[in-house]
Amino acid sequence: xxxxxxxxxxxxxxxxxxxxxxxxxxxxxxxxxxxxxxxxxxxxxxxxxxxxxxxxxxxxxxxxxxxxxxxxxxxxxxxxxxxxxxxxxxxxxxxxxxxxxxxxxxxxxxxxxxxxx
Length: 117
Hints:
The chain is of the alpha+beta class.
C-alpha cells in the first residue's frame, strides 16, 4: 500500500469563502464545489505527500495549520499584503534554510507560506 494523496480538511461555515482567497493568493484552481465542500488544487507535482507534527512553529511562533511551499514567497507575500490578509508572522529568512511568513485565511487558519533559500 502507498499513500497517493494527503488532503488537509479545514472546517468552514462558508466553504466558498476559500475560493477567492486561495485562487488569488496561491493560484489554486477550484477542483470541486459541492456546497458543503470546496476543494482547491494545484497542478500535479512530483513532491511526496507529507504530514508534520509540531510542538511550535519555530522561534516560538504558533503551530501553523498548514504549510504551503511556493516558488516565490516574496511575490506571494506582496499579494497577501495587497489583499489585506492578516500577516501573523512577517516574512523572515530562517536559519534552517527557508524564507517564510504566516498569514491567516478567511476561516481563521494560519498558513505558513515558504520557499527554500
